[in-house]
Design a protein that fits this description.
The chain is α+β, with helices and mostly antiparallel strands. It has four helices and three strands; from the N terminus they run E-H-H-E-E-H-H. Strand 2 (47-53) and strand 3 (59-66) form a beta hairpin. Helix 3 runs antiparallel to helix 4 (78-84).
Length: 87
């Protein structure tokens, strides 16, 4: 992920890909709702990323979304977020 991406790493509760995506959309909702670019302009964040790991530390899935696309998750438009994000 690029140096202008704020990445959050999570330990997923499930290894089911759809359940992991549901957890990821929750993280994207939170990130978009915080107003990161305004609160921390020094970060120069252009996108948000989430990396999901299992209990053993193995990567399950990752996603990257522009800040605008992450906002779709925050508006309850998860399907649009899914189709406009990179997994």
């Amino acid at each position: 992920m690029c140096d202008r991406t704020l990445v959050v790493e999570i330990t997923a509760r499930s290894t089911d890909p759809m359940a992991v995506r549901q957890e990821m959309v929750g993280v994207m909702r939170a990130l978009s709702g915080l107003g990161i670019p305004e609160l921390f302009p020094v970060l120069h964040a252009e996108s948000f990323g989430v990396r999901a790991y299992d209990d053993a530390g193995e990567e399950l899935l990752w996603v990257i979304s522009s800040i605008e696309v992450a906002g779709l998750a925050g508006e309850g438009r998860a399907i649009e977020w899914l189709t406009n994000s990179v997994f």
